[in-house]
Specification:
2 domains
Length: about 90
Amino acid sequence: MTNQTTEALLQTQVIQKAWSDPDFRARLLSDPKAALRETFGVELPQDIRLNIVEENAKEFYLVIPPHPSAVIPQAERLDIEPAAMWGNGG
């Protein structure tokens, strides 16, 4: 499984758990790192900040990920298209 597949699977599991478990949802909103660690065994590095936002019927959030060259500096040297790095390419 690729990192993107693993991340997508975890994201789906977290959302489903938040929908079905009000206590988990509250914990996720108040202390997301602890909620992920306690429920899914996921330990995020200390220097990573995790923000959880709840959408509603009148709000939609679009997350712009960091540019691939900022995440993987050698991307430009390897001539990799940014869309391909994020799984949006052909």
